[in-house]
Design a protein that fits this description.
alpha+beta, Ubiquitin-like (UB roll), five-stranded mixed beta sheet, two-stranded antiparallel sheet, 9 strands, globular
Amino acid sequence: MVFIKFSSALNNVTGTRATTIELGEATIKELVERLVTEYGRDFETLMLENGEIRRFINVYVNGEDIRHLSGIDTKITNNDEVSVLPAISGG
């Protein structure tokens, strides 16, 4: 099982702060496609732009930013932890 944590900013779309999904070996892209199936069009709109993770959405695999790995093609396996966090800004 892959453990997925969402920030509270995503709670209005996901309705939860965490979930698990059985994927076997997969990529972040496949995980996001699965989450879109689970949480719908609003989740897709929030997460993706032209098939890529939006720049203000931070995705971490076991604490490491996917931008420093293989991006949306980063491989994940069972027992990995994925965190999805929209960037926070303010003044």
